[in-house]
Design brief:
This protein is α+β, with helices and mostly antiparallel strands. The chain has three domains: about 150 residues, no CATH class; about 90 residues, no CATH class; about 130 residues, Rossmann fold (3-Layer(aba) Sandwich). Helix content is about 35%, strand content about 25%. It is built from twelve helices and 16 strands. The strands form three sheets. Strands 1-2-13-14-12-16-15 form a seven-stranded mixed beta sheet. Strands 6, 7, 8, 9, 10 and 11 form a six-stranded mixed beta sheet that branches. The relative contact order is 0.13.
């Protein structure tokens, strides 16, 4: 653990400096907080220690814990089918992690499919209950792949990595057939939410469908969804802790095909698409690919040579250990960040030293994607960034 010293020139509180890495970081930070809090207010240390005992690093609801996992339908446990299913699962995981749906066409990746089993961490078979009476239960092979080995392969192939911290997307969907328009929610008598979630899972997109209960319907109407009333949709989605909204309308044409219009509301941006297909499911497949491609193009990080020094990120508004744990856990999950160290701890703020796999521009873009930290001053869109950033924790 690095040495800790107090700079007596900083008033009576003191500023503590240390260099931390590895497993000692959490213990060291706890010590820093104990020291700092005793100087500020002895009662705060009691709160900090109690928080430490009650709180682990905060896990975001939208973090994809299954990013390196895939489920593939099979008909038996036969060896030949098992091997083919593992390769299918491997392809799915590579697409999710890289954000590149054409990754299997790359020679450096395609040549590894015969070795897919060497990337497997564990696998299991499980049955899914029959969807309807008279149908047989479906058998699936669930495969978990080694995160380190998969990332190493992608880097060696020159591919970007799209981290686990992805925006939770609230999906507001309206569809119109000859019987008229209707809203589709999580409890609707429709297969579409399940189809949507399956397609989203294949691309690593966390989504949630609204309940369409009294609370939702008092905030959003069918017309709001149909006409893409941005503010109403954003306000109604807050109860689902979503950071983005996808609104869509599906219309059946006179010849029986389906057309879709879609808008993604994300931060200050509005992105739109049109889809078409023989069925609603065709449109869902297309829009999920469109959204995943757009987000991965922005947030997947191509690792740099690593020759640059650390970027210093000062986060204010940290009042206790729970705040610290939340910020540290958040930073460690960001795709451009390869390592997080603590540079300085002072009352109500911490300066972190971040080693980046990508550039500082990628870091700023990913921080803007989340709602946990906000810049103290508006950041320019130019690429000539300073090596120090100032953010504040949002309560």
């Amino acid at each position: 653990m690095g040495k800790i010293g107090r700079d007596s020139s900083i008033g009576g509180h003191g500023v503590y400096r240390a260099g931390f890495s590895g497993q000692a970081r959490l213990r060291s930070a706890a010590y820093l907080y104990r020291a700092s809090f005793v100087l500020i207010n002895k009662r705060k240390i009691i709160f900090a220690v109690l928080t430490l005992l009650c709180t682990a690093l905060v896990a975001k609801a939208d973090t994809l814990k299954t990013l390196y996992q895939a489920n593939v339908p099979v008909t038996s446990h036969a060896s030949k089918e098992h091997n083919a299913a593992v390769q299918d699962a491997f392809k799915t995981v590579l697409i999710k992690v890289s954000g590149n749906d054409a990754i299997a066409t790359l020679p450096a990746i395609r040549n590894q499919f015969s070795r897919a089993a060497s990337f497997v961490q564990q696998y299991s078979y499980h049955q899914q209950a029959a969807a309807a009476e008279g149908e047989k239960p479906k058998l699936f092979l669930q495969v978990n792949f080694d995160r380190v080995a998969v990332n190493r392969l992608l880097r060696k192939a020159g591919q970007a990595l799209w981290g686990e911290n992805r925006p939770l997307i609230a999906v507001w969907l309206a569809m119109k057939d000859p019987n008229g328009p209707v809203l589709i929610g999580s409890d609707s008598n429709s297969q579409l939410p399940l189809d949507f979630k399956h397609e989203a899972q294949q691309r690593g997109l966390p989504i949630v469908f609204p309940l369409l209960d009294l609370s939702d319907m008092s905030s959003v109407s069918l017309d709001d969804v149909w006409n893409f009333s941005s503010q109403n949709l954003l306000d109604a989605s807050k109860r689902y802790n979503s950071e983005a909204v996808l609104a869509g309308r599906l219309v059946q044409t006179p010849i029986g095909s389906w057309q879709g219009n879609w808008v993604l509301l994300y931060g200050y941006e509005h992105m739109g698409w049109q889809t078409s297909g023989k069925t609603p499911e065709d449109n869902i497949h297309s829009i999920v690919d469109d959204v995943a491609d757009a987000l991965s193009a922005r947030y997947a990080v191509l690792e740099s040579s690593g020759g640059d020094g650390p970027v210093y990120l000062t986060v204010s508004g940290i009042h206790n250990f729970k705040d610290y744990a939340k910020v540290l856990g958040h930073l460690e999950k960001l795709s451009p960040v390869s390592r997080v160290d603590i540079k300085e701890v002072s009352p109500e703020q911490i300066e972190f030293a971040l080693q980046l796999a990508g550039g500082q521009q990628s870091l700023v873009q990913v921080l803007a994607m989340k709602s946990l930290l906000t810049p103290e001053a508006r950041i320019s869109s130019c690429i000539n960034y300073d090596s120090s950033l100032q953010y504040r924790l949002i309560k």
